[in-house]
C-alpha cells in the first residue's frame, strides 16, 4: 500500500487517499451528488477547472515537498487520481 | 449570518465547516505564502525578465482592464522592470467611462502600446445572457466567480494567449490579486496540452451550447493549439509575490494620474456589469462571488477581515444592477 510520510517522517494516509481527500474537500466541497472513480478525468467530469489545476499543484508541492516543473503540467500527470498517484510515484513518493 | 473567524467565508459557502475556534476548513487547508516564498518567486521572476527582455517586439502582453490591480501590475512591469508592454483591453461593452480614460492615460504614462479589443456588442450581449441564465460552468468554478465574470475572463485569457502566440511575445501577464490564484502559479510556462484540456471548463460549454457560430473564433482554435510548445508564453501574475495592499496600490497609481471611477460597484474599478453579475450570483447561491478571492486576500493579511466582510456583504446598488440588466435584456 502506498503511504505518504509527513514532515516528521511518520507514515500517514496512503497517497491515493490523501489525493481523494483533497479533491473531496476542495473541489467537491460537500456536494453529495458528485462521485468519481480513480481513472475519471477530473476536468472532463467538471470536478476540477483551470484554477483547480493550479490549486492541485500547490497542494502536491506543499504536502509532498516536491517541485513540479512546467513540463510536468500535463494531463498524463494531473487529470485523474490514478495519474496523480503514478506521477507522485515517479517522484519517489510512495 | 456566521462567518469564518479568520477570513470572510460565510456559512452559506459550499462545503464549509468550522473548527472549535470558528476557523473554516478552507483557512485550515490553504497554505499562506510566507516572505521567503515570495522572495523565491521574486528572484525567479527577475531572472526570467533578464532572459526575455529586449528580444522581441514586445516583452510582455498583459490583460489590461484599467482597474487598480492591472494598472499597478503594468506600472511594475514597465517602470520597475523596463519591459516593452502590449496592453490588451477586452471591451465587454461595460467599461466605465472613467476606466476608459484611465486606460488611455495610464498606457501613455507607462509607455505601453494599447489595443482595445471589442467584439460586437450584439454577440457579447447574447454570450453574457446565455452564461447568466444557463448552468454551463462547474459548481467549483462558480464558487470562485460569477458566471458572467467567468465568461468574460475566459475570453480575455484566450485573447491574451492568441496575441502572445501570434506576435511571439514571451510573457503573458495578469493583475490577479493574491486571492485569485496561488503563488505557485505566479510564474508558469503555458503549454498547449494542458490548455486543450482546460478549455473544456469555459470554451466548450459556451461554444457547445451557443447558437452564435462566430463565438469560437474568440477562443483558442485547434490551429493555435497546434503551435509548437516553444512559442507558448510564460504566464505571470506578479501581485502574488509582492506586498499587496489595496490602499497603497491606489495611492501609488493615483500619483501617476489614475482616477478611481465613481460609477462602479465596490469590488470593481472598471466594470459596469459587475454589480449585476454579483447580484445574480448572490440571489442564486447565497454567497458573494468575490468571497473566495477576498478570503484569500484577508488570509494573506493584505486586507482586514472587517473590510473584507464589508465588501462581500454590501447590497448591490440596484441602479447599477438595473442598468446592466436592461442593457442585456435580463429581468431582475
Name the features.
heterodimer; A: 94 residues; mainly alpha; Non-ribosomal Peptide Synthetase Peptidyl Carrier Protein, Chain A; B: 332 residues; alpha/beta; Rossmann fold; 2 domains; six-stranded mixed beta sheet; 14 helices; 6 strands
Oligomer: heterodimer
Number of discrete domains of chain A: 1
The CATH superfamily title of the largest domain in chain B = HUPs
CATH topology descriptor of chain A? Non-ribosomal Peptide Synthetase Peptidyl Carrier Protein, Chain A
Which structural class do the helices and strands of chain B define? alpha/beta
**Uncertain spans of chain B, ≥5 residues at pLDDT below 50?**
none
Our estimate of the beta-strand percent of chain A is: under 5%
Number of strands of chain A: 0
* Largest pleated sheet of chain B: 6 strands, mixed
| Total domains of chain B | 2
Average the pLDDT over all residues of chain A and give the rounded result: 82
Architecture per CATH nomenclature, i.e. the level-2 architecture of chain A: Orthogonal Bundle
User: Over the alpha carbons, how many angstroms does the gyration radius of chain A reach?
Assistant: 13 Å
Q: Report the sheet with the most strands of chain A, covering strand number, pairing sense and barrel closure.
A: none
Rg result of chain B: 19 Å
Outline the low-pLDDT stretches of chain A: 1-11
Figure out the total of helices of chain B: 14
Describe the structure.
The complex is a heterodimer of chains A (94) and B (332). Chain A is globular and about 35 Å long. With 94 residues, chain A is an all-alpha fold. In chain A, 46% of the residues lie in helices and 0% in strands. In chain B, helix 4 (97-110) links the parallel strand 2 (85-90) and strand 3. Chain B is α/β, with parallel strands linked by helices and 332 residues long. In chain B, helix 3 (68-80) runs parallel beside helix 4 and helix 3 (68-80) packs across helix 10. In chain B, strands 3-2-1-4-6-5 form a six-stranded mixed beta sheet, sandwiched between helices. At the A-B interface, helix 1 and helix 2 of A face helix 1, helix 6 and helix 8 of B.
Amino acid at each position: 500500500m502506498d503511504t505518504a510520510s509527513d514532515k516528521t517522517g511518520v507514515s500517514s494516509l496512503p497517497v491515493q487517499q490523501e489525493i481523494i481527500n483533497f479533491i473531496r474537500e476542495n473541489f467537491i466541497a460537500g456536494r453529495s451528488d458528485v462521485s468519481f472513480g480513480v481513472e475519471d478525468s477530473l476536468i472532463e467530469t467538471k470536478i476540477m477547472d483551470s484554477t483547480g489545476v493550479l490549486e492541485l499543484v500547490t497542494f502536491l508541492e506543499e504536502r509532498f515537498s516536491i517541485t513540479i516543473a512546467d513540463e510536468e503540467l500535463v494531463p498524463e500527470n494531473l487529470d485523474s487520481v490514478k495519474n496523480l498517484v503514478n506521477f507522485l510515484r515517479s517522484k519517489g513518493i510512495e | 449570518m456566521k462567518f469564518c473567524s479568520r477570513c470572510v467565508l460565510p456559512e452559506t459557502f459550499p462545503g464549509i465547516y468550522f473548527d472549535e475556534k470558528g476557523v473554516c476548513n478552507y483557512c485550515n487547508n490553504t497554505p499562506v505564502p510566507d516572505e521567503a516564498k515570495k522572495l523565491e518567486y521574486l528572484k525567479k521572476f527577475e531572472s526570467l525578465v533578464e532572459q526575455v527582455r529586449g528580444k522581441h517586439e514586445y516583452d510582455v502582453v498583459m490583460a489590461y482592464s484599467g482597474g487598480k490591480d492591472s494598472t499597478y501590475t503594468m506600472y511594475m512591469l514597465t517602470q520597475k522592470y523596463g519591459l516593452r508592454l502590449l496592453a490588451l483591453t477586452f471591451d465587454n461593452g461595460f467599461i466605465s467611462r472613467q476606466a476608459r480614460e484611465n486606460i488611455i492615460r495610464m498606457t501613455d504614462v507607462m509607455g505601453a502600446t494599447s489595443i482595445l479589443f471589442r467584439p460586437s456588442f450584439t454577440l457579447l450581449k447574447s454570450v453574457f445572457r446565455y452564461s447568466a441564465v444557463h448552468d454551463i460552468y462547474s459548481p467549483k468554478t462558480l464558487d470562485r466567480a460569477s458566471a458572467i465574470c467567468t465568461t468574460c475572463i475566459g475570453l480575455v485569457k484566450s485573447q491574451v494567449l492568441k496575441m502572445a502566440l501570434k506576435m511571439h511575445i514571451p510573457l503573458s501577464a495578469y493583475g490577479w490579486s493574491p486571492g485569485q490564484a496561488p503563488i505557485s502559479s505566479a510564474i508558469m510556462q503555458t503549454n498547449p496540452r494542458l490548455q486543450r484540456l482546460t478549455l473544456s471548463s469555459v470554451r466548450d460549454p459556451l461554444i457547445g451550447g451557443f447558437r452564435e457560430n462566430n463565438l469560437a473564433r474568440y477562443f483558442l482554435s485547434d490551429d493555435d493549439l497546434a503551435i509548437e510548445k516553444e512559442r507558448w508564453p510564460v504566464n505571470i501574475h506578479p501581485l502574488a509575490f509582492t506586498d499587496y495592499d489595496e490602499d497603497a496600490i491606489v495611492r501609488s497609481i493615483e500619483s501617476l494620474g489614475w482616477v478611481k471611477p465613481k460609477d462602479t460597484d465596490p469590488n470593481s474599478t472598471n466594470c459596469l456589469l459587475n454589480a449585476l453579475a454579483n447580484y445574480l450570483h448572490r440571489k442564486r447561491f447565497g454567497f458573494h462571488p468575490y468571497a473566495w478571492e477576498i478570503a484569500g486576500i484577508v488570509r494573506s493579511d493584505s486586507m482586514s477581515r472587517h473590510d473584507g466582510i464589508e465588501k462581500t456583504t454590501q447590497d448591490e446598488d440596484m441602479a447599477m444592477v438595473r442598468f446592466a440588466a436592461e442593457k442585456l435584456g435580463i429581468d431582475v
